[in-house]
Amino acid sequence: MAKSLEQIMQETNIVTHLRNSKIGMYIYPGVAPEFTNWRSEQMAWRDSVVLYDQSHHMDEVTVEGPDAQAFLAHVGINDFGNFDMGRAKHFVPVTPAGHVIGDHIIFRLDENKYVTVGRAPTSNWIMFQAAIGKWNVKVSHDPRSDSRPDGKAIYRTHYRFQIQGPDADKIFEEVNGGPVPEIKFFHVDTINIGSRKVQALRHGMAGAPGLEIWGPYADKSYIQSTIAEAAKKVGVEMHFVGSRAYSTNTVESGWIPSPLPGIYTGDGMMKDYREWLTEQSYEAAGSIGGSYVSDNIEDYYVNPFELGYGFYIGWKKDDFIGKDALTKMKGASSNRKKVTFEWNAEDVMKVIASNFAPGEKNYKWIDFPQPNYASSTADKVMQGDKMVGMSMFNGYSFNERCLLSLGVVDQSVEVGDVLEMVWGEPDGGSKKTSVEPHEQTTIRVRVSPTPYSTEARTNYADSWRTKT
Amino acid sequence: MAKSLEQIMQETNIVTHLRNSKIGMYIYPGVAPEFTNWRSEQMAWRDSVVLYDQSHHMDEVTVEGPDAQAFLAHVGINDFGNFDMGRAKHFVPVTPAGHVIGDHIIFRLDENKYVTVGRAPTSNWIMFQAAIGKWNVKVSHDPRSDSRPDGKAIYRTHYRFQIQGPDADKIFEEVNGGPVPEIKFFHVDTINIGSRKVQALRHGMAGAPGLEIWGPYADKSYIQSTIAEAAKKVGVEMHFVGSRAYSTNTVESGWIPSPLPGIYTGDGMMKDYREWLTEQSYEAAGSIGGSYVSDNIEDYYVNPFELGYGFYIGWKKDDFIGKDALTKMKGASSNRKKVTFEWNAEDVMKVIASNFAPGEKNYKWIDFPQPNYASSTADKVMQGDKMVGMSMFNGYSFNERCLLSLGVVDQSVEVGDVLEMVWGEPDGGSKKTSVEPHEQTTIRVRVSPTPYSTEARTNYADSWRTKT
User: Which InterPro entries match (chains A, B) (predicted)?
Assistant: First the structure.
C-alpha cells in the first residue's frame, strides 16, 4: 500500500526528503519546447501576440452542488460577495495557521457550479475538504497531463488557450466575425471562434491584455488552427509559445507560481490531511531546490500578505479556514513583501564561465530561459551576514535582457538595495536528479518593483500584481 | 497540388529559400527534454551508463526482394563484399557528382532483407532509386515521429534503444540472464530482455561500448522498464538521456549528422529527383543556418573523403552511383578534412554577455547544450581574411566543459591552429523562425582532432571515427 505523507514525515526530516526528491524538473508538459525560438516567443508577448497552450500543465477541479459557493468560500480566503456568474477570481486557500497552500483561478460557470484551475496543492486541499466536510457538493478532478508521455496520447477534459499581446484584439475580431464584447478584467463572456461559441476570460499574463478561452478537449485542434488562420488573415505575426518560454512570462508580470504548500506542520485536520496525501502526491513527491536549507519546514512557507493577496480576504465572511490566523498576521511587522530580484550580469557570467573551465570547480548551471530546478525554489538572499529574503521563482527575459526572480524580503529592504543571493546548493548539491555536482557561489541582486516589466506596471489591470 | 523542389528552385534561389525556411528547429521528437538533467545525462554516458531512446528521430526504410543487395550496393558507396547476415554498416549514398546525400545505418536482417535507419535525405534517395530502377525490390518507409505531436499518440514500427557506457555490460548480463554473447563491433546477435529475444547491434556513440537493440514498438515500455529494473538490481545508476542532451553526444565522438544533401544541382536523374521531391520534403522544407552565405548551393556540399568515409568505398564493385566522380575526387588536394573546433571560452562569454545588455546589440543566442538552429549548419571558419573551413554541427559538452563543433577545413589547416568562426547570420539574421534578431561576431576556435573526446579516441572501435 502507498505510504502517506505523514508516514514519510515520521521516518525522515521532511526538508531533507523534499530537497532530495527524485522527481526531476517541474515540467510544463504536452507542449513543444519551442515553436519558433524562445527569445522570439518572449518578444512576441510584448510586441505582437502570442498563443499560450495551457491545456496541459494545470489541474482542474469542478465543484458542483447546492453548497458549492458556501464550501468554496469556506476553503478560500477570498471575498465571495461579488462572485456573480461570468466572473473569475484568483482563489487562495490557506491552512488554519494562515500559510498559503497554493492558488487557482476559479470560474463561476453556473449558479451552483465552479471550476478551479492550477497546481496540485490547491486541488488536493479542495478534494480533502470536500471529503471531510458535510457539504452537499460533488467534486471531480482532472489532473495535469503526464510529464513524460513517451509517445502516448494525452487526454484532458478541456483545452485552454490564452491569446495575448498588443495585437490580440485584431485576431479576436476576426475569429468572432465582428467586434468582441467589452469584457471587464477577470470577467467571462462568450465569443465565436469559427463555428464554435467559446467562453472567454479577460486576462493577461505578461502585462498586455488578452483572453483566456476554453472548451472541450476534442475541439483543441480546430480552435487552434482557426485562431492561427485568423492571425494570418489579419496580418498579425502570432507566436505559439513553447514550454521553455512559457514559464518565464511570470517573472515579468510578478506572479509566484510555486510557494511551498504550508501543510507539513499543524495537528488535527492538518495531520489528517497528511495521512490522506499519498507518497505520490505533489506534497510528498515534489521537490525543494535552492541554497536555503532550514531544519524547520515552516521557514519555507509564505502567507497571503507577503504575496500581495491580503486585499482578497473576505473579512466579512463568518468563517473560513485560516481566518483567525490571518487576523493576527495582518499588518505584522514580520510579514515580508514581494519583490523582483534583478540578477547582476557580471555575476551571472562568472557562474556560466565556471562551466567552461575543465578541471576546475563549477557553479550550478543556470539553465535558460528557466533556471528553476525543483517544484519549489528557495534561494537565500543575504544582506551581509543576515538572510533578508528568499528567491522563489526565476527566469531569463530576453525582453529585459536579464535574469529575474520573484521572492519575498524583510520590510527593512528597499527597492534599489543590492543584496547577495546564494546560488547553488551546499555540500556539492543535493541528490535531486535535476542537480549536477557543483559548488555554491553568490550572485548580486538588485531589489526591484513587482511587476518588473514597465509595460506590466503601467498597462496591467488593477489587481494584486500592482497592489502593494 | 504540392509543388516540387524543382519548381521552387525555378522560382527562387535555393540558398535564400533554405536559409529562410520557416520549419523551425530540427527537433529530436517524442523523447522528454530531460529525465534527470542534461549535464548529468552527459556525464553518465562517459562515467556510468545511459539509455538513448532512438525510437523517434530517425526514418526507417526496409528493402526486400531478390535484388535487395544489388540495389543497395548500387545506391551506396559501400563495399558490400563482406556484408554477411548479422552485420550492419554505415551506409553512405552520394550523387553522380560524388556529393554526400546523407548516411544511414543499414542492417542485414535476412538473405534478401535490409533495413536502413537515419535522416530523411537517404530515405528519400533510396525510395526514388527504387522507383526509377528496374530492381526487383519492395521498399517500405516508416518516417520519423511528428516533431510536435501536441498530445497525440505516436506510432512507429520499431522501438530502438541504445544502452551504453562503462557499466553497460553489467546490465546486459542481468537482462540476458547470463553472459552476453561476444558481439563484434557493428555485428548483430540476439540477447534476452526479460521474456523477449531481441536483436542487438554492438555499437557505441560517445566513445564507450554498448548495444543498440530494437523490436516491435508495442514492446517499448516492457523493454524499457525491464532494462531500468535490471540496472537497479545490479546497482548501476543508469540515466535515460533526454532530447536536449541526446544530439550533443556526437560532438564528442565526431559524427556529423547533418551534411546538406548534395541534390540541388545536376541534370538528368538529379533533375528528375528534384521533381519527385515535394515542397514538404526535408530537402525542400529544411533549413540552412549559420554565417556562411554563398550564392552557390554546391559550396555547402561535402564529399565522402572529407567526412572520413573514403575507406568505405567499394572500388571493386562494377558500378555504383557516383563511382566515376569519386575516382576523380580521390586524393584531390581540394578535399577538406574533418576536424573538431574547440570554441574559445572568452569569446563565448562575450556572446552570452551581449544578451545581458539592455538597449545594446546582441549576438546570436548560444542555446545550451545544442546551439544549432537549422537542419544543416554552415558557419564560416576564417584564417585572417580567407575562409578555410565550415563548422557543421555544434554542441556543449559538460564532460569537456566546452563548446565543440564538427566541420571541415582545408588541407593547409593543422591541429592546434586557432581560427575565427563567424557566429550568427549577416544582415540582422535570416527569416528562419529559429532565429531572433542579432548581429554577427566572431568566436575563436582551436582546431582539434576528431573525435575530440580522449575517451572516444582511445576506446572506440576501429572505424571511420578514428581513421584519418
Answer: GcvT/YgfZ/DmdA, GCVT_N, TrmE/GcvT-like
